[in-house]
Amino acid sequence: MTQLSDILPFIFLYVFVSGKMLFAFVGTSFVTRPVSRVSQSIRSSTPHIPLRLRYLVGVVVLVAIVLSVSLTIPENSAGRRIDRMQSFLGIIVIVLVMTATSRHPRRIQWRTVIVGILLQFCLGCIVVKTKWGSDFFTWLASMASSLLAFANYGTTFLFGDTVESLNTLAVTLFPAIIFFSAFIQVVQYLGGIQWIIKKIGWAFQQLLATSGTESMVAAASPFLGMSESGLLIKDYLENMTDSEIHACMTAGFATVSGSTLQGYIALGVDAKNIITACVMSIPCSLALSKLRYPETEESMTRGVMVDPQRDTDEVNVLHALANGAAIGMNLSLLIAANLIAIISLVNFIDFLLTWLGQFVAIHQLTLELILGYILYPYAWLLGVPHKDILNVSQLLGLKFVANEFVAYQRLTVATNGLALKSVLSSRALTIAEFALCGFGNLGSIAIQIGVMGTLAPSRKADISRLILSACITGSIATTITAAIISMVM
Hints:
Elements: H1 4-26, H2 29-44, H3 51-72, H4 81-100, H5 110-129, H6 131-148, H7 151-159, H8 161-164, H9 169-189, H10 192-208, H11 212-228, H12 242-254, H13 261-266, H14 271-292, H15 317-357, H16 367-374, H17 376-381, H18 389-401, H19 404-412, H20 426-435, H21 442-455, H22 460-487
Helix pairs in contact: 3-4, 3-5, 4-22, 5-6, 5-14, 6-14, 7-9, 9-15, 10-11, 11-12, 11-14, 12-14, 12-22, 14-20, 14-22, 16-18, 18-19, 18-20, 20-22, 21-22
């Protein structure tokens, strides 16, 4: 095999192993020290310039870059300039509303907000408007899908070809979760995940001026998910500030874990869009979290990159594999229970609302319809074409009260002989796939309280107080990702 797509995994593996061996002996200070010095020199070279003026210049530069790129891209069937300006207006309105509702408006660290949104916009341009960026994320989605497909061998061995070929959500999702959890646990035991996450977290810390713990969790969320990423900083949770806890939970709600990717693919969602949405939402989740809940306390990990932690009871690879399989099994049962409970409850509520609607002359009154009208203006702000707004706003509401699986199923699976994705325009479909990608829903709130409260019992009251705000902020981060994609389409 001589195609680059065939040998690229071996190149990455070779670079990773070689780099890990090299840095085990020489360290990374010869790279990180110069970068930190440059960053400090930039900050110290402008002490005579007022902070507000620096923030104002940053906002002007950000707006100029966004507008210049969006307006110079040629128009096409999926994106006219007026449609892009609709999305741009939406982002401005959302940021202004979040600023007005901020817990401490005068303490907002605007550097984090400006750089976070700029990073998100640059990532969107790379994926959508550069061939190498599009090809790389397409390849990444293909590799992730191929990796998760190995779970089919275990399914076939255990249940036979007949069950494996059913292609139901349970058959495609749960074995993939168990396999990926075991795989990640093994890689984590070998030190691979911690090494990668620490480097990505250090980059976020330098660029966004966030603390070590929140940078670490944000970097880990797309790999491990919102629950497992908290284990990396479990020894710091008791002493973390409210703003740091809010940022960590927001990052979890703004992304999805790699173990659930196969489930979305089975529902017909583009894997490239899922991976792109997760990557783009990381800096935005930190930016919006610091906008909604700015730091007012002194963080013990500010300016310090913490070492990710892992369970120390694992004695070898087989032990790690068994632990990972157990985690995957528990997660599968939890997802199954939530799906059964939520879908059943939503249908029960719809039955009651439809029954009530017959008395007030409202045909097919459902929870989805009510939420659709509530979120109608918000869907317009994302840049959704007028004829598709109600359908997309209903999906956004369904995702928040149920979960992303239910919303994606409503989008892709045919109901009464017609799938919603066949009705939506290509622009609305892309916006919907990006906007629905995230764990920001009411069911995840209960899961997050249970996990974080177990890791830090003394902070359970603080976690419960902050978690609804973090869930809404994380959901908004994913929708801003969708708005940015619609600006460069």
